[in-house]
Amino acid sequence: MSNLSPDPSLSSAPAHTAIDSNAVPLEAITFPSQPMMREIAWEIPPYYQLFFMYPLFLLAMLFLCKNLYTHFQFVNKGSEKLFTSYKDFNWGAFFKTITLQGKVLRSPVVARFHSLIFYSFLIHTLATTLVAIHEHSPFEIFQGTLYVAISFLADVAGIATLIGILTAYYRRYIHKPQYLEATQPKRELFMYAILASLVIIGFALEGIRIYAQTPELNALIDNREREWSPIGWWLAYALYAMGVKGSAPEMVSLYRGLWMFHMLSTMFFIGAIGSSKFLHILLIPFSALITPARRAGVISPMKIDLEGDSTPEYFGLAKVADLTQKQRFDLLACVECGRCTEACPARNAEKPLDPKKVVTKIRDHRALEDNALPPLFSKVELDSCTTCAACSTECPANIEHIQIINDVKRYQVLTDGDILPAAADVISNIKIKGNPWGITPDSRMDWIHKFHQNFPKESAAIEKEYGGKNIAELIRVLNPGETCDYLYFVGCAAAFDPNIQKTVHATMLMLLKAKVPFAILGAAESCNGDPIRRFGDEYSFQEVAMANIELFKQYKFSKIITHCPHCLHTLGKEYSKFDGGTYEVIPHTELLLQLKNEKRLELSAATKTATAATRENVTFHDPCYLGRHHGDYQSVRSLIHASGAKIHELTLAQDRSRCCGMGGGNMWYELPEGQHLAHNRLKDISEVHVEELITACPFCLINLESHKGLHEETTNLRIRDVSGLLVEKAFH
């Protein structure tokens, strides 16, 4: 079978003396008995390789290196290094990509045809390498069992490649999903054409060689090459059946002509890697290596001199020159597969956002470099992004869309002053009142007096266990200079939203029951600034973040607990980008599971003996910031199972969970375009036919609770945090 070797045919045939110009008829050619092997470069004169193949290979490699160096120069112009330390390399993702295709397998349809092409390419590469070693080194290894095995695999790989290409072509050009629209559609066509031509010509070479070596029907039938080179053998048989006749010189000339064309195509393929979509063969494995897991939503700080007098010309992404090295690399790595757009919950709700076009629009203007980019994105387009990271999770090239989107939003907000009025109000409220709603800070501790209102029996049990003390007295408020093991960051939603107060009450009741030493900041606590950064107002976010970091410096604690995944992400991953802002932050679900496993949080006997008939039937909505951003999919499920309830999994769950729609600042405004994102998520929930939905995020709870009337099946759905489910079992 053909591959990228100098002699593409991989069928077996005895070696023989080359046919000279006074060739005898094919029928008169005889061959001595030889081991299972074939002559490398059959009937190809040495000068073909010396004067054509080797110089063209060198030329192709030079052209490839030139293009790669051009790409390197483009990437190297960016700010922030592509990677800071070899210790940060994601070797697991790298090896998964080069052996198992990485994220390609996440799409069953794509996985099927891409696997055929991918593994066939590896087989052809192996065969080519073995041929080169056999021909150009003292080690004549391409014979015997190894030859038979590789020859057979190469024939199978050739057919697999053609099937894969036909499937890909059908999907790209005949039955084409909208998200596959490409800015340069002919680039895919070139890719398919060059691969298909290499395979087809290789098969033709194989068939011609076998026919030329065994032109008699009986000899052809007895030729064992039909066992390990079946495609070439059947093509040779077809030539015989069609009555093709030719003298030895004619067959050799035909073979040499096709060999030359195949060789030229191979060199063209090598040279085109750096300037075509074949570039992804090199870039995607490297992208997997340099992209840490779950970094997509960690927004990098913008350099701002909060105390300086100088004002930059503009903020955010206005030019290609403003891109980081990783963002530039992402532009080159994108293959326009549309997996990001297919997964985007905003796009699926008919919002104007298209994550793929966010990348391709900038990529197609990369030649501008230091010149200002034209207006590429509308305000509503980028504000539709919920920063759920579904795009980056699905992207085989590990592109980090969220950072690019946020950088453009920074320009819109800080330079153009283009911000939604509702978002501007939230920013003002946080900076002045310390919370997004603008509620007076004096009310921030009102929740501490409502334990009995939400959990009367459980609160009474705790007060009895602690000698009759009022439960509000049991919640320690940390004073400056004091120390505690766990600092519970209550957050704004739990402080001011009555429904979310049930979450903090349930969690704290269980912490008290398990004798966990924790404390809170009390009225000194303020919003961490998460929505401000997502709106694009990086300047105000850094002011809020630095104020909180200075506040935290007044206390000593080992870990921060939070029941809000957005607080978890901002405090744990984004504050660490600032001096003095590194903290170990854990979700309440992780701590509760630890307490359960340590038997410090005992469940009722009824829970332990629950049967299928008595178990509660619930489903669980994975919050984006707990799941995709933090990587925790199991703690809540383990807690639900421990409670005695039975989980009916949603179709889109865990790292495929559909965003509820509240991230990225969308908690604080509603865009009129398209549907509300909760519509699709509640539809998913309605399909499992349960009476209760469990989540572990205040934003998700508020959103799904307020929109559950969108579907008749979810109108009476009970929605609560997992802590609310667990507290009932811990006190009964």
Can you walk me through this structure?
By secondary structure, the protein is mainly alpha-helical. It is built from 32 helices and 9 strands. Helix 4 (144-174) runs antiparallel to helix 5 and helix 10 runs antiparallel to helix 11 (325-333). The radius of gyration is 33 Å and the shape is elongated. The termini are far apart. Residues 1-24 and 26-34 have low confidence and may be disordered.
Question: How would a textbook summarize the main sheet?
Answer: 5 strands, parallel
- Rg, alpha carbons: 33 Å
Helical region count? 32
| Mean pLDDT metric | 90
Beta-sheet strand percentage?
under 5%
Short description:
It is built from 32 helices and 9 strands. By secondary structure, it is mostly helical. It has 4 domains: 42-62 and 86-286, Up-down Bundle (Fumarate Reductase Cytochrome B subunit); 310-417, Fumarate Reductase Iron-sulfur Protein, Chain B, domain 2; 423-597, no CATH class; 605-730, Rossmann fold (3-Layer(aba) Sandwich), CATH 3.40.50.
